[in-house]
Amino acid sequence: VTEFWPWVPILSAAYLFLAVWRLLAYLRYFQQEGYEHRRFLRWVNVRSLTDPAFWLSVVSAFLFLIDTLLAVVLFTVGAIVLGLVQPDPRRSGKIPLRLTWRATRVLVVATVFAAAGYVASIRVFVDVEVRAPLVAASIMFALLPLALLLADAVLMPYESAVQRGYYREAVAQLRRVQPFVIGITGSYGKSSSKAMLAHLLQFHAPSVAATGSINTVMGVTRHLREDLVPGHRFLVVEMGAYAVGSIARLCALTSPSAGLITAVGDMHLERFGSTETIMRAKSELAQAVPPGGLLVVNADSPNALRIARQFADRRVLLYGERSAETLATRVEDVRFTKDGSHFVLRTARQTYSCFTPILGRPIVLNLAGAFTLATAVGADPDVTVAACRTLKPVSNRLEVVEDAGVTWIRDAYNSNQFGFRAALEVAADLPATRRFLVTPGVIELGPDQYDVNKALSRDAAMTCDHTVVVAAANRAAFVDGHRAAGREDRLIVVSNRSEAFAWLHEHLHDGDIVILENDLPDLYERSAGVFWPARQQAGT
Amino acid sequence: MGEQTAPAVRPTIAVLFGGRSLEHDVSVVSGLQILHAIDPQRFAPIPVYIDQMLRWWVGDDLWHNEAFKGGGPDRSRLIEVTLSPGFGTSLLVPVSLLATLGDRTPSGVATAGGGRIPVDCFVPVLHGTFGEDGCIQGALELGGCAYVGCGVGASAIGMNKRATKIMAAHAGVPVVPWVSCERAVLDRGHGWLTDLPARVGASFGWPVIVKPCNLGSSAGVSVATDADELISGVLRVFEYDVEAIIEPFIKNRLEINVAVAGLDEPVASVTEMPVTSQSTPLTFAEKYKRQGRKSIGSSEGMAGALRVLDPEQLPVEMRAAAQRHAVAVFATLGCEGISRIDFLIDADTNELYFNEINTLPGSLAFYLWSAAPHYWTITDLLARLIGRAERLRAMKRGLQRKPPAELKLLG
Predict the structure, then answer these.
(1) Chain A: residue nearest B53 by CA?
(2) Helix (H), strand (E) at residue A493
(3) Which residues of chain A neighbour B225 with C-beta distances below 8 Å?
(4) What's the pLDDT at A523?
(5) Which residues touch B392 (CB under 8 Å, ≥6 apart)?
(6) Is A2's pLDDT higher than 80?
(7) What is the predicted ipTM?
(8) CB-based contact B74 A383, cutoff 8 Å
(9) Is the pTM of this model over 0.95?
(10) b or e along B286-319 (b: 16 or more beta carbons within 10 Å of the residue's beta carbon)?
(11) Which residue, among A101, A203, A350, A356, would best test binding to B if mutated, counting the most B CBs under 10 Å from its CB?
(12) Hey, are the CB atoms on A390 and B235 less than 8 Å from each other?
């Protein structure tokens, strides 16, 4: 053991150098996940075991028994090389790490933990194992992501004090500005409804809505502190239901005067346990709207309609397309062209023929909701209809792109079955020689996944001349769906995206339509890009 | 950077770029070009990045285009500064003294105590709102600073298409007729939805081009062939601006541009014709993205766009008329520095119209001076403009600003 001690400082320095770099790399993702422990852990998974740093420590530890000096050199040089080839997370990747105050705090404390854990592991193994420093390094590299979580947990009391301060500032700002607050909730279509409502309202009076899908108390607090200024008359707030009580908390912060409920479905069923619980969570918005306050509800969604029924003392306005109820706004005559959606909105007083450069039936329905709410709070209906023409399509959400005679319907981000069907419907409406579908199916549906995908496959077989199913996740469901439709000849099975494109390039002709549905983009890079530089991806 | 022939003290030249504007990225591209074009033998240039929140930053990272990729420069490696208060100080002072403790102080420039940087002359290369419209110029005036380019008045007028047209017409320069629509119509119900198309139809008919009144870039510009498209176009403008300008759309049109440099006399450059100037106007993406994608900070940038200098297919008289009109507009607005004046030619009638002025054109339109008759490099031109800016500042310093006897009310 004694002959080993001279190496300890060198090994420790090498370990600490690489450990700090790795913490920085993990921190980028921890930050991207909004410092949420569970989501970060899901991303981490067994990733630290794919880290060459971990294997370097393990191999060095084994080599140590054969040749001490060689092991020390290998570990030291290896650690330096690995540190140098690792991309700097502050400068690389789609969303680089921003070393904010919070990130710096977490990093510093995590580094302390990484060092302390290392020393503690050495002390544990020092009596039984001459390779203690290398064993300690192996353990620590495997557990390194946890150091960030631990650091964040330790800093939590401080964070929450800071956040309480922010919350008070947001409340004070709301009191000063006193905007008319409109809350939006629903199982899907919240973000797009919020964006559309804010777009329509801006031509009526100064309005503000957070960009993207900010829908938590912390996100909304920050938005209020940064963007709400005196003079704003309308504030549109998206309210996400992550559990029973989360919308109630947002309502406590913002006290909405009006609410928009887009659709209440069984999405996130596993999170809530039952449809009843989902209903309870979503009705918190209706509850918060004062008696006599405005409640705009999608009557096509039976669950949303049930919520409206429970709050009859609110001023309920219904919108929809198929519902048999008396509607404030009814959608009619929806048809799609390459340029966008044409439709008619029928109100009690008048009918408006409308156009919007965005595609898909769900979008039209959401727009009807936004129209109903905007006009109910005083926006001129004619100006509002004109404003529908100026909405902008969102990239990769049922976006039509024409390229060299082929029409591409890009719908990479619509990951649910409703978006899937909407894309099929649009493709069916557009003139085409042949229709192709490229998709891996939809995922994260729990026990329903097979049935849902089989049904989608059957529908696709009816609309599309060829369906290319990518990857193994839903392959069986798609094969069975096409078989049920009696169109096995229309299904092409490939194992990845590049194969799908290779097949397409061989078969496409002028006048064809290709739907790219639910690309399952790797939300996160694989270990490439984290521990070592990612190679440029080939192909489209 | 300093070579053996460098003078004892090189004047510090602060190049301002970035800004809170749609053209933030364009400004970064232009600003880095200008920064690298300033003669380091004669001057000590220093990059000053103004971010979207209008905070000012200095630091050596700002020399390199890589620093601006992926969400902007790393602030932890920069020092936040502000223009020091008080007339005539012309200093950049750190917002926090703590920031100056590291090695973040920009190199190559002389600093006073406490990390303060005395600036001899500012070169604003900020496009669009807050940078090209007189705002930053106002701040520099309040500090009594020397700066290259138009003053507050010329910048503010040049940014407003309606005001510029009135001024140009007053100077005898032909302009395309227009109808203006202010955002305030939104407060008066929906009558304008029918009134405006009627007014446009009566004034000049269809098709029309709809533009924001106060934006330099092509953002919010659209062509409308009927009432519905006109209303959408105007609403789209209202997302960017408080006023829309509607003009007849000249279908068969050509564009020619002329730069004017405010030296002792305004001097016109050669004319240029952007090759993409055929039938539809450039969109924002066409105008900037394609060219901007060439590495920022390179000497290419916007100069790499497709253009023809001194287009020979146009009659000599027309090119000369454009140069004459350009100088007239420049002089009437009271411009300084380099402006680019854009004209339209109706190819059917062969008529030339003033279109707009850019008081802070991309890359300061330096490519227009590299041809006959001038053959000036941007480096030479900048040296001359800096000299003129300093003379103007000195001249303005001499203007009487203390209350004369008859206005002394306080004894």
Answers:
(1) A226
(2) strand A491-494
(3) none
(4) 39
(5) B146, B336
(6) no
(7) 0.78
(8) no
(9) no
(10) ebbeebbeeebbeebbbbbbebeebbeebeeebb
(11) A203
(12) yes
